[in-house]
## 1
Amino acid sequence: MYRSTIVKSLIDKNYSIIRKTSSYKILVPTNCQQQHHWFSSPGLLGKVQEMVGDGVGVEPITRILFCGPYFPASHNYTREYLQSHPFIQVDDVAFDDIPDVIGNYDICIIKNMQLNSDLISRTKRMKLIMQYGVGIEGVDINAATQHGIKVARIPSDVTGNATSCAEMAIYLMLGLLRKQYEMQIAVKQKKLGEPIGDTLLGKTVFIMGFGNIGIHLAKRLHPFGVKILATKRSWALPLQNSHEVEASYVGNGTYDDLVDEKGGREDILKFASRADIVACCLTMNSKTAGIVNENFISSMKKGALLINIARGGLLDYDAVLHHLKSGHLGGLGIDVAWTEPFDPDDVILKFPNVIITPHVAGVTEYSYRQMAKVVGDVALQLHTGKSLTGIEIVN
């Protein structure tokens, strides 16, 4: 009744509401001059849109919530992709404001937000929770299921995300092998011919977690002349959506021509003891959290390198710090950290054999444009009641 009265009042006064990107412009005719007022507050904007939705002949709005300010290209590219579809609203909302406005949205893109049962209980019209990528460990999937909300990830292989992450892993390996920090010091000190670096040639690389990223990493490491060890939860089942590596697929999901020796979880310490480089490509869950612990790193060869482009929680912080201090760990290359954003003054970053990047392994123009298209297409499908495609629903 309240909203209908306001909408009627707007119509009687010849108000018009025009949508432009993620804001709404209210045009107020007067006897003198038309006044323009812009509103971008998700709360106020939601109220205005609810009023519009009650109007006769007005198409309802499907609303997408991007959680927090980080990874800005995600919401910017999605908004750009959907700019010709005024009935889809894309908002990026500060973490502190999300509890108050989450009830106004149909789709939630979590990014690095922890979407717990309390937040999910505040949803009123939510139909889909998605990650702008593959990691959905921050979502309480049981709570979402109880509220009738689907939870989905974007397969990394078809968007180029897996390729981007694999390239970043190689970047970190090369940076540590060629002693990036020491090279920068040598330039500043006007030295030539030092430091003495190392090559990937002849190295043994242990890929822990042979999913899409692991496969793309193995494929790109082969030309460097390395030996590859890999572990996977189950080698019996083929991976889905691995279209770009089908040339290497031998029909049973093992990708034998990419791996010199394959194993399961029971083999991780054995493989760690033989590898010059360990690359973590695991999914983060209750079984893998802290899997690279004191026992694991102690099993690694002295001077071996540790690379993590998956999730920071896979590594035990204290164990990593201890083995950097002792010199047992030859180098650490991480794109993900235990807390994000990572403290730039953390003691781990004081070591010259540590390289950290700000969670950008998958953040490339190609992969983010592709993922924006997936999110945009899913929003359009949801809006029109069509079946959802291009995503992997997990509940």
## 2
Amino acid sequence: MNRAWLCLLICLALSCGPSQSASQDRATNQTAASPLLKQSQNTFIQWVLSLLPQRPGSSDSENATLATLSSSSMMPDAASTTSTTTPAPSSSTTTTRRATTPAPPTLNPPRNCSDCVCGIANIQKRIVGGQETEVHQYPWVAMLLYGGRFYCAASLLNDQFLLTASHCVYGFRKERISVRLLEHDRKMSHMQKIDRKVAEVITHPKYNARNYDNDIAIIKLDEPVEFNEVLHPVCMPTPGRSFKGENGIVTGWGALKVGGPTSDTLQEVQVPILSQDECRKSRYGNKITDNMLCGGYDEGGKDSCQGDSGGPLHIVASGTREHQIAGVVSWGEGCAKAGYPGVYARVNRYGTWIKNLTKQACLCQQETKKIK
């Protein structure tokens, strides 16, 4: 609102216009009709306000002035003790017509989070080499589809968010990405499979598409999933742990050999996790950053491969059944090639980032903490 309009409105509120002497001549009559006059003034001001353009850039002080004018016109004369049963016209037009910050959405009724445990495989068995998993053995492993076709994997962290690799979503249209849970054999139809659209994709702000540093991303589902006896998420990794010397379990529908077709069924393979120094002594050298984790054999033979990207590298916490997601399948030279271990995004480097972005979701407890 410009100053000219504001002055006019002030003038209207104060009934300016007639000369001072003329006002004095009518003082007695105005005092007697004061409540009616105030009512008329307010009605007229409300009508004028309704005609004014609603400028999105108008200042808070202008709106405060309008609200003051409207409310002051409704106040009874200080000298009058006469009450009225006619309610004053509402001033909601001026006091609520403009909101600079929308109120946060309220869940009504609030979403109830079920009592659940993360990281427990549905079937416990020993891995010997690469092989097909049991159906729904790792229920948190999700398939990513682009335009309806499988291309990457992800891991369910809670009822709304998944973890994947940035290179699986960077530059992709989220409208064309969908998530499928409880899939096992891509050629068979399973009644239990769950499909969701993607509401949001968050790549790490420091992701480097040239060297795959910080190759980690978060996917938010358009609708939460419900946990049950089959479906539950993976556990987050222990902060600060290197995982050196531990056995990692990689799962995915990726190719079984370099250049080969992707697998129809979910596969798993076990690889030893290397220290940073050991990995930098491989043929990768200084390409390995502190945000990366390596897993594999010097002679090769077992590895993740094309199509496994974004999927999990698990470790099972000592003395527990708890599967933690230590890494996200990122990159590598070939597949299972001697001197070139698989490279993964080191998840426990991003605990705070993940927690801050997923704090509104329903979480499952770790079994060890639940027992305590």
